[in-house]
TrEMBL record:
GO terms for molecular function: tubulin binding. PANTHER family: INTRAFLAGELLAR TRANSPORT PROTEIN 81 HOMOLOG. Component of the intraflagellar transport (IFT) complex B: together with IFT74, forms a tubulin-binding module that specifically mediates transport of tubulin within the cilium. Binds tubulin via its CH (calponin-homology)-like region. Required for ciliogenesis. Required for proper regulation of SHH signaling. Plays an important role during spermatogenesis by modulating the assembly and elongation of the sperm flagella. It is found in: Cytoplasm, Cytoskeleton, Cilium basal body. This is Intraflagellar transport protein 81 homolog. Belongs to the IFT81 family. InterPro entries: IFT81, IFT81_CH, IFT81_N_sf. The keyword Lipoprotein does not apply.
Length: 676
């Protein structure tokens, strides 16, 4: 158990919690503090759970924690295997329940973060069966399941890419190798330039070589154009053959067709177009509008930089520290002090050690400051000796710093714009891929519909005709460049067209007779169509009236349901507020002082008094510091002058000792000489 608590304390003292606990302070935490600590750990795993438990009901807190623990697949240990006992311990903040839970969460934080992230998208929302009978709800549910499967596949691909991707070390090695190759190529080009400069008339030779390279490139482009024109001619001949075959098939189909079959085909085509106009296209348009609204909403949200996030984190840490201090003061004030003397002594010793450490740090900082000032003086003197520019000071330095800050903010803004453009480019690429996939699917559907309607190859023929027209326009643009080749090609095509006209002359005669029959059938079809339109208009008016009536009734039903739910919610909120007001009134009126202390009014009154007393103390301290600031600064200056004076005395004393030692040595040497 002690190892478990030691592990919990170590993890809580690290990032991102930074609680600064020890074994004694952690063991002395109350039930509410343990529950808040558990909520903070769960909030680190899932940001939605980063809430203050004092602002929500205990039942809601327990329900929220149990739902997340269910998603994280937490199993209580053997001592609390009973689920009801575990829930009760979680509500009351029992240590035997909270400590193993914290140990389990802190052991596998990264794994649980990933599981909570996936749960946001993979926990399926159960829709009641009676709602699935609605086509709109069923389509949305189906789309929801498809998106969930797509998310699973994308997440798997992302994990595979993370595990199988190149490491940064390999990329850096590749970059270094490419930079070396670049340097080698630059050196090689410089050597070649030096060699060429020794040759006579080298500018003219370089110009001739450049013209030769341009002509070779032009020759290659002309050869490529010639090959493309040959391919286009071959494809045009093939399309002409296919068009002739289709013409024969259509003539054969018209010869064998009857008015009943034509009317049936027309009715099928009308039904299909009606379905497209009334159902499919409006549904797709609505989905596009929804997706556009969501994307606009996402794009309108302001982007936050890393500096903004760091500022928010620092503010959060400061507020948490202040909260912990207030909680400790409250515990010290309202809990019995006799049983806490040992803890207070330990805290006092800890504070004394911290104070000593801070004093040492202050001394080291002062020494470092003095050394830096000396170095600055030396550098300033060197700059004056070298007749350089003076070092910026005072307002000039502030102006320069402000200028740098403005440039830095401008750079950060541009970097954010570049990041936004990059993100938008990625979104557009993905949109292009999706549109291509959808285009392929629509092409397949169109092919299937053409096969079903008996006009297979219609869209392909239309595309081929459009391509032929595009090729013709390109050929018209290229006439000025390759006039001779195009004239020969036109002659060949004219001869081919004349031959085709001669071969198609009997077919055209038959086609004229068929056109007369087609005109008669068209008149009869128009009469039938007028009758059909009149009948359809009457039925459509009746249907629209019924649809409007049904729509009005449905809207009225939905409005009544929403009013009913709104009234129920308001009633529930009022009941809860009334219950809380009754409990507060009961606690405030109660004669028991312990019960009155639980009242919110009393708690806030005590907190206001504590803050006022704290403010008074701080103002008194501020006043004392202001009064003693001038004398203290004078005293510091006197001590610094005294230190310099003692340093000078020490140097003079050392010099005097050196001189006396040298004189003694000289006297001893003279005596020795006299003796000799």
């Amino acid at each position: 158990m002690s190892d478990q608590i030691q592990f919990i304390v170590e993890k809580l003292n690290q990032e991102p919690f930074r609680k600064n606990y020890n074994l004694i302070t952690f063991d002395s935490l109350g039930s509410m503090q343990l529950l808040q600590l558990l909520s903070d750990v769960l909030g680190e795993i899932d940001p939605k759970h980063a809430v203050d438990i004092r602002e929500e009901l205990p039942e809601k807190t327990a329900k929220r924690m149990l739902s997340l623990l269910g998603i994280l697949k937490y199993k209580p240990p053997g001592s609390v295997s009973d689920l009801s006992a575990f829930r009760q311990g979680l509500v009351t903040g029992s240590k035997p329940v909270i400590h193993p839970l914290l140990h389990w969460l802190l052991q596998r934080t990264n794994e649980l973060k990933k599981r909570a992230y996936l749960a946001r998208f993979l926990v399926k929302l159960e829709v009641p069966a009676e709602f699935l009978h609605d086509d709109t709800v069923a389509d949305i549910n189906k789309q929801y399941e498809e998106l969930m499967e797509a998310f699973k596949n994308l997440h798997k691909e992302c994990e595979q890419l993370k595990t199988s991707g190149l490491s940064t070390a390999e990329i850096r090695r590749d970059i270094d190798a490419m930079e070396e190759e670049k340097d080698q190529l630059i050196k090689r080009v410089e050597r070649l330039k030096k060699r060429v400069e020794t040759v006579q008339n080298h500018p003219r030779i370089l110009e001739i070589a450049r013209q030769l390279r341009v002509e070779k490139e032009r020759e290659e482009s002309l050869a490529q154009q010639k090959q493309e024109q040959k391919n286009q001619l071959f494809h045009a001949e093939q399309r002409l053959q296919r068009a002739q075959l289709q013409l024969k098939e259509m003539l054969h189909a018209v010869a064998d067709s009857k008015p009943e079959s034509l009317m049936k085909k027309l009715e099928e085509e009308i039904n299909f177009n009606t379905y497209l106009v009334t159902e499919k296209i409006p549904r797709e348009l609505e989905s596009k509008k929804n997706s556009t609204y969501i994307l606009q909403k996402v794009a309108a949200e302001p982007a936050m930089s890393q500096s903004d996030l760091n500022v928010l984190e620092s503010k959060i840490n400061e507020v948490n520290a202040q909260m912990n201090q207030l909680i400790e003061k409250r515990m010290m004030k309202y809990e019995p002090a006799d049983s806490k003397f040992s803890m207070y002594r330990q805290q006092a010793s800890i504070m004394s050690r911290k104070k000593e450490a801070k004093a040492e740090q202050l001394q080291a900082a002062k020494e470092e400051l003095s050394s830096v000032e000396k170095q600055m003086q030396q550098k300033t003197s060197q700059a004056h000796e070298l007749e350089g520019s003076e070092v910026l000071k005072g307002d000039e330095l502030k102006h320069y710093v402000n200028k740098l800050r403005s440039k830095s903010t401008f750079y950060k803004k541009k970097r954010l714009e570049v990041a936004e453009i990059t993100a938008e480019y990625g979104i557009l690429q993905r949109t292009e891929e999706l549109l291509k996939q959808r285009h392929e699917a629509i092409q397949q559907q169109l092919q299937a519909i053409e096969d079903k309607k008996g006009i297979s190859g219609y869209s392909y023929t239309q595309e081929e005709l459009e391509r032929v027209s595009a090729v013709k326009s390109e050929m018209d643009e290229m006439k000025g460049r390759t006039l001779d080749n195009m004239s020969e090609m036109v002659k060949k095509l004219n001869s081919m067209v004349a031959e085709k006209k001669a071969s198609l002359a009997p077919v055209i005669r038959e086609l004229r007779q068929l056109r007369q029959k087609c005109q008669e059938l068209t008149q009869e079809c128009d009469e039938k169509k007028i009758q059909y339109n009149s009948c359809a208009a009457g039925l459509e008016s009746n249907r629209s009236a019924l649809e409007q009536e049904v729509k009005g009734l449905l809207e009225e039903c939905v409005q009544e349901e929403s009013n009913y739910h709104y009234i129920n919610c308001m009633k529930r909120n009022l009941e809860i507020q009334l219950q809380r007001a009754k409990e507060e009134m009961k606690a405030y009126v109660s004669s028991d002082p312990q019960e009155r202390r639980k009242a919110i009014r009393e708690q806030y009154t005590r907190m206001i008094l504590e803050q006022e007393n704290l403010g008074k103390k701080l103002r008194e301290k501020q006043k004392v510091v202001r009064e003693n600031h001038g004398p203290n600064m004078k005293q510091i200056k006197m001590w610094q002058d005294f230190e310099q004076l003692m340093q000078c005395k020490r140097e003079c004393f050392l010099k005097q000792q050196n001189q006396t030692a040298i004189g003694q040595v000289i006297q001893e040497g003279g005596k020795d000489r006299l003796v000799l």
